[in-house]
UniProtKB/TrEMBL annotation:
Parts of the chain that traverse the membrane: 12-32, 44-64, 84-105, 125-145, 157-176, 241-261, 281-308, 328-349, 355-373, 394-415, 421-438
Species of origin: Neokomagataea tanensis NBRC 106556
Protein name, as recorded: GABA permease
Domain Amino acid permease/ SLC12A: 17-390
Main location: membrane
Membrane-related topology note: Multi-pass membrane protein
Location in or out of the cell: Membrane
Annotated Pfam families: AA_permease
Annotated InterPro entries: AA-permease/SLC12A_dom (IPR004841)
């Protein structure tokens, strides 16, 4: 069986790789930010999220096919380099590192108020404490990180499953459950509350809440069975996690009137209040803090491993290749943590603009990276003649088209133009750097 040709140890089982992927997906965006989606989409959230899920399934299928073809190439960044050349690998790799650093920076900023709400202590204590905790966990060993991440991911999955179970029980049998709800049901006002156009405009945001599954290809570099690990994430985890997203948000709309959803407040907290669960807000705050910590943990792992991979091809500082006795690229982990804290520092200096900028940049960078991955698959299969290659090339082309249209739809919105300008400028800088570092 082929494994990635790196010095990293292969200690992660397919189950742990899957839990790592889940850790990068379910974050504060679902638990808190989804209020804005629901107010714009109403019950159109179901077909729109279905489109987003299908697009992510197609993307993960493409990444799984690439891994199966050449597992020794490493993560999907290595696959891009192998198919499109050194410059493309440089650009995609650094874009992916910056994506996770921007994401982690926004998560660090979010820790402060959540920790203060939950404990009453200064938010800075929570920010420093959880950043230190994730750093130490990542420095111990890949398996120690993965085991901790699995526990956090299972907590998030369990919370969503429990919410769905309690919501269905209270909606169908309020007298039996002892939980009371207004049973709003499907109303005309909740079907298309802000119009078709406003609902369609949320599709890029919905896609963003599902990005992160590609971490499976990064974690698979440390798995004895990378092909099975990535295939597991593509075939099972994306549909399962996507279902939890759709079912939980649709259930909220059957419990809470659309007008009762307030921006900045979690729709899950509002639903729990309507069901007469007074401690719901506190429980949810703890769960969101777990989700943020989990995402921060995964961001540090994913970015540091790709930084290590870039160092192997001389696209990052050479000391990022240095491994500890337990097989951890310690310098890459430390450099990544510094970059993440730098992004968080900028956000703290400009609380609103910095936070929004970090989120917007991360959303655009990951989609550009997906475009590189699909282009690599199309290029690889351009002369292939094996059975099924034609359908795989079509799948990659359709996925490329889907993400291209998503980026264009963002560019044509007033709020999205600055986001596009920032991300395109970042990609242009990376292209210039790639040109001068790979002139031969």
């Amino acid at each position: 069986m082929s494994t990635p040709s790196s010095g990293l140890r292969h200690t992660l089982s397919p189950r742990l790789v899957g839990m790592i992927a889940v850790g990068g997906v379910i974050g504060a965006g679902l638990f808190v930010g989804s209020t804005s989606f629901l107010r714009q989409t109403g019950f159109l959230i179901i077909p729109l999220y279905t489109i987003a899920i299908l697009l992510m399934i197609a993307q993960m299928r493409t990444l799984a096919h690439m891994t199966a073809h050449k597992p020794e190439a490493g993560s999907f960044i290595g696959q891009i380099r192998n198919a499109l050349g050194a410059r493309a690998g440089f650009i995609a790799g650094w874009a992916y590192v910056l994506y996770w650093c921007a994401t982690a920076g926004s998560e660090i900023i979010a820790i402060g108020p959540l920790f203060n709400q939950l404990t009453g202590l200064p938010g800075t204590i929570g920010m420093v404490g959880l950043v230190a905790l994730t750093l130490v966990t990542n420095l111990i060993s890949a398996r120690a990180y993965a085991s901790g991440e699995a526990a956090l991911s299972l907590t998030k999955l369990g919370a969503l499953t429990l919410f769905i179970a309690v919501g269905v029980l209270s909606w169908l049998w309020p007298s039996l459950s002892g939980i009371h709800t207004s049973n709003v049901g499907i109303t005309t006002a909740s079907l298309v509350p802000a119009g078709i156009g406003a609902a369609l405009a949320t599709l890029p945001l919905l896609i963003q809440t599902l990005t992160g599954f590609e971490i499976a290809t990064v974690a698979a570099m440390e798995s004895p069975d990378p092909v099975r690990s990535v295939s597991h994430a593509a075939r099972r985890l994306v549909p399962q996690v996507g279902f939890l997203h759709v079912a939980s948000l649709a259930l909220v709309l059957t419990i809470v009137p659309i007008t009762a959803l307030q921006p900045g407040h979690s729709p899950f907290t509002t639903a729990l209040s309507h069901m007469g669960i007074p401690v719901g807000a506190r429980i949810l705050t703890a769960i969101v803090l777990v989700a943020v910590t989990s995402c921060l943990n995964s961001a540090l792992f994913a970015a540091s491993r790709v930084l290590y991979e870039l160092a192997e091809t001389r696209d990052a500082p050479a000391n990022c290749r240095v491994l500890s006795a337990s097989g951890v690229p310690t310098r890459a982990v430390l450099y990544t943590a510094i970059l993440e804290c730098a992004v968080a520092g900028l956000g703290i200096l400009s609380p609103h603009d910095g936070y929004i900028m970090a989120l917007s940049l991360s959303a655009m960078l990951i989609m550009f990276t997906y475009l590189f991955a699909n282009a690599a698959q199309i290029r690889r299969l351009s002369t292939a003649t094996s059975p099924g290659d034609a359908s795989r090339r079509i799948l990659a082309a359709l996925t490329f088209l889907g993400f291209s249209l998503t980026l264009l739809s963002i560019a044509f919105t007033p709020a999205g133009r600055n986001d596009c300008l920032l991300s395109v400028s970042t990609m242009a800088i990376l292209w210039i750097l790639a040109y001068f570092t790979h002139r031969r």
